[in-house]
Structure formats: C-alpha cells, structure tokens
Amino acid sequence: MFAAELGDAVRWGEAAAVFVSYCAASSAAYLVNDLRDAEDDRLHPVKRYRPIARGELQPEHALVLAAVLAAGALAIAAALGFASLLLLLAFVALQLGYSLGLKRIVFVDVVVIAGLFVIRATAGAAAVDVPISGWLLVCTALLALFLGLAKRRGELVLVHADVTPGRQALAGYSLRLVDVLLNSVAAATAAAYAVYAVAAHTAWMALTVPFVVVGLGRYLFLVHRHDLGEEPEHVLLSDRVILGAVAGWAIVSAVVLALT
User: Fold this and answer.
1) 207-250 pLDDT, tens per residue?
2) Does residue 108 sit in the same domain as residue 203?
3) Is the pLDDT at 163 greater than 60, yes or no?
4) How far is CA 201 from the centre of its chain?
5) HEC states along 174-201?
6) Which pLDDT score is estimated for 167?
7) Backbone dihedral angles phi then psi of residue 162, each to the nearest 5 degrees
8) CA separation, residue 34 to residues 30, 59, 99, 249, 257 (Å)
C-alpha cells in the first residue's frame, strides 16, 4: 500500500508467498520453543493448554513437523530470491537463539522480539521488490518493543500474584521499571510514526497519526488498568477501540495515498 503497488497482481502473489513462508518459519520455531518449555508450561494457567504441554502432540512428532515447516519456509523464500532467503535464514537463526537462551537475558529478550519483527518487515519489502523507509523499520521495532514490554508486565503481575512461576528473565524486571519503559516507548512510537507519515509520504498522512495515538493509548490503559498484555494477540483482536483505530487508520491511509 505505501509503495503504491496495490494494482500489481505479481506483487500480491509475492506478498502472499512471503507471508506463508514466515508463518511456517514462526510455527517451526514455536514448536521447538514449546518442546523446551513443556515442563514449565504445565505449571502456567494458560500455557498448560498448549498441545505439547498437554501431551496431545508427542515430542518426536513436533520435531518432524517443525522440520517440515522450516524446509517449506526456506523453499518458498529461495524461490523469492537470494535476499529473501538470507533474511529468512537470519530470522530462523534469531528465533532459535531466542528459544535456546536469549529469552533468559533481561532486556535482550524483548530486543530480540523487536528484531524479529524488523526482519519480517524487511522481508516483506524485499519479496515484493519495493524500497522500505528506515522510519518504517524504526516504527516496527518500537511497536514490537512496546508489545514485548507489555507482555513482560502481564507476566510480572501473574508472578506477583503467585498465579504462575516466572520465566528466568523476569527476575531482572520490576513493575515500576517496565511501566516507565512502556510509557517511554509508546511516546517514541507515536513520534516516530508521525515523522514517518509526513517525511516519507505527504503532510496529509498526518491525519492518520491520531488513530495511532488512540490505539497506543488504549493499549496502555488496558495494560495499566486491567493488567492485560500477557497475550497481546487477544488484546489486539478483541478490543473494539483498538480494532476501530486500526480500521480507521487503514481507511484514511488508503484514501490519502490514493488521492495524493
């Protein structure tokens, strides 16, 4: 959309292919991660329902499935070009590094999560062969960092309530510190998006900034007032205000880009 290539059927096909590729690669990484964390997941109020933790998926079957998914992801990426293949290899390597140890290091864990989303955004642009703004990558990194910190806050709340044992990295976090970081990253995300919208496109894109501010503000409200955030996908897909902000942003962005 931002590259004004919505009418290119070939690029739509490439975008769909790289989407499938990263879904498969992410799923393979999550299978490996869940295998390693199965014992801890069984003690968690939500994660204990994961297939491996519940015993519904046997470890050997999970490994085979992970290998098949990873191979399929690499094959699709290779078909999209050398740059796409390199980016997917970097993504898989970073995912494995996260599962094997990086997720236990304070702050490194959330920075790695942000890095994975930056690779995704870069891979999307590489697959459809369009330039990508550095500001868009900054926005992606900050938004992912924001969601990662909100997730850690949700986990801290559960640990303090003795509902679940905490992951190793949580020992280095505190609610006060995470709250300060969350507020700072939210402000930085809104500012970075405002610069990106105007500098990379047109002044009319400033009309989309309020939607971003509302979405971030609503998420912060839910995190602070209702202690949500441990499952960001649940918050993002169930809150009507956030869904409305995303829909409004998409509509206004499309209209502005079409008219300018």
Assistant:
1) 999 999 999 999 999 988 877 766 788 888 888 999 999 999 99
2) no
3) no
4) 24
5) CHHHHHHHHHHHHHHHHHHHHHHHHHHC
6) 61
7) 60, 30
8) 6, 10, 9, 35, 42
Clarify whether residues 139 and 255 are in a common domain. Answer: yes
Domain range holding 128? 7-132
User: Of residues 137 and 44, which shows the higher confidence score?
Assistant: 137
Residues 6+ apart with CB under 8 A from 186: 146, 216, 217, 219, 220
Closest CA relative to residue 38, chosen from 51, 24, 25: 51
Does the pLDDT at position 76 exceed 70? Answer: yes
Which pLDDT does position 73 carry in this prediction? 96
Look at the block and give the residue holding tokens 């047109």.
202
Looking at the structure of the chain, the number of domains it has is 2
Give the separation between CA 156 and CA 174, rounded to whole angstroms: 7
The CA–CA distances, whole Å, from 159 to 30, 221, 237 equal 23, 21, 25
The verdict on 103 and 39 lying in the same domain is yes
Q: How many CA atoms lie within 13 A of 83 on its CB side?
A: 11
**What is the C-alpha separation between 89 and 94, in angstroms, rounded?**
9
